[in-house]
Structures are given as structure tokens and as C-alpha cells.
Amino acid sequence: MTDSKQLYQEVILDHNRKPRNYGKLPDATHRSEGLNPLCGDHIRLDLKVAGDVIESVAFEGQSCAICKASASMMTANVKGKSVADAERLVGEFRGMATGTLDVAKDANHLGRLTVFAGVKDLPSRVKCAILPWHTLHAAVQSQAVVSTEGDNDPVAQSA
Amino acid sequence: MTAANALKTPEPTSTFDVDRYRADFPILANVHPHGKPLVYLDNGASSQMPQQVIDRLVRYQTHEHANIHRGVHTLSETATNAYEHARRQIQHFLNAKEDREIIFTSNVTDSINLVAHGFGRAFVSEGDEIIITHLEHHANIVPWQMLCEERGAKLKVAPIDDSGALILEAYEKLFSPRTKFVSVTHVSNALGTINPVKEMIDIAHRHGVPIMVDGAQAVQHMPVDVQALDCDFYAFTGHKIFGPTGIGVLYGKAEWLEKMKPFRGGGDMILSVTFEKTTYNAIPFKFEAGTPPIAQAIALGEAVEYVRRIGLERIAAHEHDLLVYATDRLRAMDGVRIYGTAPHKAAVISFYVNDIHPHDVGTLLNEEGVAVRTGHHCAQPVMRRFGIPATARASFAFYNKLEEVDVLVEAIRKVQKLFA
Fold first, then answer.
1. If you average pLDDT over residues A128-147, what whole number do you get?
2. Cβ contacts of A129 on chain B, cutoff 8 Å
């Protein structure tokens, strides 16, 4: 199984080195922090929501390559989308990463994000990929800080 | 640990027939992660089990099992004898004075909690102080924090230098008339530092303070003699010394154990029970409430015998070869930084590759069959001391070969290439 190497090759080469939408938004309307205490992944997400639309989005933080690439692709994907569409993507991404959504069979809106389908075979890394999405969900729900552990465990929620 | 930049696998300086011992460990030959030979460098987290110990477990379950200490029938006597024999095997392994100084627990965490409860609740009160070090695993931090919180006592932490070595003078300065207890690790699980425990024990005793040593990362690597050390308590766990999970050991000087409160109440730890009063059993049984992990204790006895037969001096010499060679090779790689460079180290190497997160390194090393631990190693204060969230850690056992270091180095090179 060379899935993880393929995953790395496809995602890292681009997004880990040149993350999109990296930084802060001075005029953010929503802000949230995501933390995975098990590995120390820590990202900060800023959103500017106008009406129902995510007008701009930015992230920064310290994390592994899977988390950073996931965050980078997420921001590129949800920019300009409605909050409802973004939330739908959060659910689909979580389903893909935890194996409850089969991207080959089940209808979805993930597009290029399906490069992350391989993480379901790396159970110890699922949370790395989900953390940015979990943080996005928290930001639009106006939660300030989320953790991948305890009551907010995204993997447990979707199980 | 001097570093000649040897790039060819050197001739081992110790005469240690590693292949002969590897043959005892079926898992090393049976498992092929991603189709590659297993290079198991996660022994600090848990070691593998030799066939001799597996056979002992099977023999116990197929011929000897019953509950212990209470039956009059043959099987119960057989099981009781085997369990108590294991206690004596551990006694000899640690060179304890008496077998009743050996208590079976479930792991080191359990052993430390037993002392934090049994000693702490009996002898620690408001304003008292407990000393640990900056190198501790969470298992040797949290129980003391809980005790301090409950009692209004204070936790003091002995510092380390930039190499990860304990600063002995600073440790000694922490002692005050209020110091009631000291608990220190023998070997750091995150950095490999071997603490000068003999000196630390002598210092504690000069101040009239009892001291516990966490030997989770020590007993499988070097000879330990609790009488020579003169420590008051010593703990280790079964699954890091080629035995099963679910079994740990607490050695305690009889004089302390007798004065301490029981940890758990229940069966086996009593002499008599009425609804008005319970009389506790003698040590060690006072601390072994309920049916213990009988099979695991017996298998642990077999595991320490196995290690004794090979000889811990020889194991230490072979592992030192592994440490020196691996350190030299990793140091010679551009972009690889080693955390933990104390002069006295066990064969544990914590490292960082360029600026690549250790989790990414671990996932990709696994592709090459190399098993390392990544993360904070349940030692977040150590990680914070060095300003990093995590490391990748290669931790060796006597069954590892110098050639496996070469596989590790090659695999790291592939990670670097992928991220280049």
C-alpha cells in the first residue's frame, strides 16, 4: 500500500510549500482556533462573512503537512461559498476521511478534495486532515476554540 | 559517545550474537509492513515478546490456571506457587532483600499512584513539598500534582540543561525542611538521558527524604540493584521488558510498605472483615486487592529470567553500539537534529527532520517498514523545554541490529527527498 506516499505527493508538493490564504484577516467577522493536543497541531482560522456568503478566509498555525494542506485546500474551496454550502462540505469531508462516505459511489461536492480520501487508511492521521474543517464549523458556529479531543472529537461524532 | 563519522556499518565492539536472539521473537519475522521487513524501533513504547514467554503464557493457561491464594485444590496450589515463584524471580532480578517487598501492579502508572496514595496520603500535608524532575513522563507528574492539589502541598521540579542532562546542584538546592518525597525517572523516555540516580538517592537521604525511581525505561537496558541503589521505591512495567501488558512491579522497602495505607480495598488484601472493622493483610498482599493478573505475572517472571540469561551487561554493551552508530549516522545527515545529547544515554534517539512535522516523518517511515514513535511521548514539559511540539523517536532493544540503523537512515533520506 503506497497510498500515503501518493497522498503526500499529490497534496504536499503544492499546498504544504505554498499554502493558499495563509495569514490573518484584519476585518474577520468569525474567528476560531483548532487544536489537536495529541500531536500539537494548532491552526487559527479567520472568516469574513457578509450576509450568507464567506467573502474571505485565511488560516495560519503550526501543523503537520496533512493538516496544512487540508487547511489550504479548504480555504480555496469555501471562499465565495454560502455558509450552508461550506457546512455541507464539512460534513462530506468528515465522511470521506472517516470512511462513511465513499467518494467513488456516493454523490458529493468534494471535487479536488477527494485527494484526501486516502487518509481513511491512516487512522492515526484522520484528525490531522479533519482539524481545519472542524475549526471552520466552529468558526461559523462562533465557537472560539475547538479541540480534536473530548466532547468535540470529530471522529467520535461521525462514528 | 564520541562521533567518528563512520558511514559503513561497523563491526560491533561487543560480541553479541544478535541473530540468535532475534530468532526468539516470532513477530520480528512474521510482520512485513508495506511488504518490507519490520524494523521495530518503538521499544520505548512497548517491546516484543520472545517465544519462551509466549510459551509460558500458553503453558499456564493450558495446564496451571485457577485463582490463587484461596483454593485447596491442586490447580489453585499450582497457580499460587507459580505466581509466588514469579515474585521471587522479580526479587532476584532487582536484588531486593525480601520477596514481600515486591508488589504486583498493572503498570508503572499504577505503581506510582499506589505510592502517591499509600505514602502521600499518610505522610504529606499542607505546605509540604515533593520533588520531581523536568524529564518525567506524565505518569510521574500527574499523580503527584493530584496529591499536591488535594493536600495543599507544592511540587518542585529539578531542571535540565540543553543536552537534556539533569542539573544535580539545582536538584540538591530544591530540598528544604518541608520536602517529604522525591520521585524521579531513571531513564528519560523522551530523550534517553540516564539520570545519576545513585547520587540523587544519596542526596535525598542526606536530607532524610525517601525517594522513588521510575524504572520503566531502565530495567530492560541495564542492571538494576535496588539494595545497591538504596532507593525506597522502584517501579517497572512488564510490556517494556519483553513481558505482557497489564502487569507492573513496585519494589518498596518493607519498612515503608508496612507503614503505608492500602491503595485499593477488596479481596485478598484483608485478614478479617466485619462490618465494624477490617484488619489488613501483611505486605505484599495488603497492596494486591482482588484477583491479580496471574498469567501476566508468571510470564513477567519468565521474561526477566530470559533477560538475566542473556545478561544485562551484554545487552547494555550491544545497545551502546547501536546508540553510538545511530547517533553518528543521524548527525551526519543534513537537516536532522537530535534532541537529547546528554553524556549518559540509553539507546533512545529523539529527532526532527528538517522542518517536517514528526507525524509526517512517522507515517512515511512506516512505508519503509520502520516503526518509530512520534508525538510528545507523554512528556510535554520536556518538549516545551526544547520549544518543539513533538519529535520522532527511535528506541532500541537488544534484538535490533546495526543494519537496521542503515534502513532508518535510508528511509529518512526518502522522506527528505519527498519534501525537498
1. 86
2. none
